[in-house]
Amino acid sequence: MSRKPGPTNPLEAARRADRRRTILIQVAVAGVLIVLIAAIGVGLALRESGDSDSVADIGPVPAVATDNGAIRIGSADAKTTVRVVADLQCPACQMFEARNGALLQQATAAGTAAVEYNIAAFLDRASSTEYSSRAANASYCVADTGTDNYQKWLQTMFERQPAEGGAGLPDTELIEIAKSAGYTDASIGQCIAERKYDKYIAAKSNALLDEGINSTPSVFVDGKQIQQSELQSAIAGAAGR
């Protein structure tokens, strides 16, 4: 004999429905949290990967380079700091060196000024062999073995600057110029041939553009940009302080 179910209790049914809704909400929240945690983990992994890639992208960092990529010549106690942003393929930079190179060498020798040379690679399009980058790379290659002969090397590089539109100086001549300036370390030739600092130079050249420097030569004294004609008086003023 079958028994018919008794009448449904409305309060009990409501409680069951509330419990079901609560369980469903808890399950949904747990699912969302799992997705968020997974997403955060992926994001952190990508960010860490991106950070390591950005470091790797600049390649080896020259031991001699300052934070902004400059090669500093002169005493740490110098009364003033001159910063020169130049490109070794730039004819205007060649003229600047011809007019002011001796002044800068005298100032560093006397301890009056330190000079920070930012050698950029803006003019690769002006040669068929990316001479601007190759010459900038050579700059770090020689300076990494010592800076005592750097200004002599720079003077010779500008004196033998190739014409725009050609192939630029071959690596063999860059190595010969280094030797003529007193750089005889055997590692220099390999550094020049392998273009060891190409990625670093590209990164620092882009950083110069980001800084607002879009022409060479650009000259600064104690962080303030000046006209080339003001350089001698600025150094003399520092000597008198």
SSE blueprint and pairings:
Elements: H1 10-57, E1 71-73, E2 80-87, H2 91-110, E3 113-120, H3 131-143, H4 150-159, H5 171-180, H6 186-194, H7 198-210, E4 218-221, E5 224-226, H8 231-239
Parallel strand pairs: 2-3
Antiparallel strand pairs: 1-3, 2-4, 4-5
Helix pairs in contact: 2-4, 3-5, 3-6, 5-6
Describe this structure in words.
This protein is α+β, with helices and mostly antiparallel strands. It is built from eight helices and five strands. It has a five-stranded mixed β-sheet, sandwiched between helices. Helix 2 runs antiparallel to helix 4, helix 3 (131-143) runs parallel beside helix 5 (171-180) and helix 5 packs antiparallel against helix 6.
Question: In a few lines, what is going on in this structure?
Answer:
With 241 residues, this protein is of the alpha+beta class. It contains eight helices and five strands.
